[in-house]
Amino acid sequence: MSSSLSVYRLDTTAARALIGSRDDQLLELIHTRFADDLARADDEHAYEIEQGAPTAEQALRAVIHSGPFSENQNHTFQYGYAYKRLCSLTGVFLPNDCFTPHRGDWLAVVDQGLETLGITAVSVEAFSQKSPPHPLPYTWTPGCAEWTPASITQALEQFDATKRAADGSGQAPPLESEVVDAVQQCIGWMRQAHASGQGVIGFRS
């Protein structure tokens, strides 16, 4: 079974502030903008909804109003996808062809590539391991994590330091071509975010 990443450049603090914002105008905008997507999601998760999971629209309302949330762990995925829709509305989608689809431990492999280049301030595997922010309930899917502006700045500084060292030695760290492409894509995300003073948020599903 394969997984995918959805990655956005956005103001991560502002994105978190949408949770519990009680912004019904935003809710109406999302309902209009994502009407077809919400309907498809409800069709896809019809069985879970029959078992008591919130619909996609109900989950959006709960996120914007900070609850009430289902306590059933089998239903909390809906709140994660609701938060993803909020981020997709307010953020800029970043290219992710090196990660969609992916299988197995690919994200960990790319992290190893980043570490080989001295980059430890950010992690793509975190997009899989972590959950949407509090107070949203824990869910394994979608995975969700942020790269803050500070961590992105640090990561780019780490990369630049590695480049300077490689230029001095005449040797670049050895990496497989697929890993090089994925690492370059990550660096591209960071450069875009850094230039705009924003962060990055990623969802694994």
**From the helix content, strand content and strand pairing, which structural class follows?**
alpha+beta
**Main sheet overview:** 4 strands, antiparallel
Beta content: 5-15%
- As for the number of domains, it is 1
Strand order of the largest sheet: 2-1-4-3
- Calculate Rg over CA atoms: 18 Å
Give the helix tally. Answer: 10
pLDDT average, as an integer?
94
Using the alpha-carbon principal axes, give the shape.
elongated
Helix content: 40-55%
Spans of at least 5 consecutive residues whose pLDDT stays below 50 are none
Protein name: DUF7691 domain-containing protein
Organism: Streptomyces yaizuensis
Domain DUF7691: 1-204
Pfam families: DUF7691
Identify the notable features of this structure and list them briefly.
10% strand, alpha+beta, 205 residues, elongated, single chain
Please give the structural blueprint:
Layout: E1 5-10, H1 12-17, H2 24-33, H3 35-44, H4 46-50, H5 56-64, H6 77-90, E2 92-94, H7 106-116, H8 126-129, E3 143-147, H9 149-169, H10 177-196, E4 199-204
Descriptive account of the structure:
The protein has about 200 residues and is of the alpha+beta class. The protein has one domain (about 5-205). About 55% of the residues lie in helices and about 10% in strands. It has 10 helices and 4 strands. The chain has helices at about 10-15, 25-35, 35-45, 45-50, 55-65, 75-90, 105-115, 125-130, 150-170, 175-195; strands at about 5-10, 90-95, 145, 200-205. The protein has a 4-stranded antiparallel sheet with strand order 2-1-4-3, with helices on both faces. Helix 5 (about 55-65) crosses helix 6. The longest helix has 21 residues, at about 150-170. The radius of gyration is 18 Å and the shape is elongated. The mean pLDDT is about 95. This is DUF7691 domain-containing protein. InterPro entries: DUF7691.
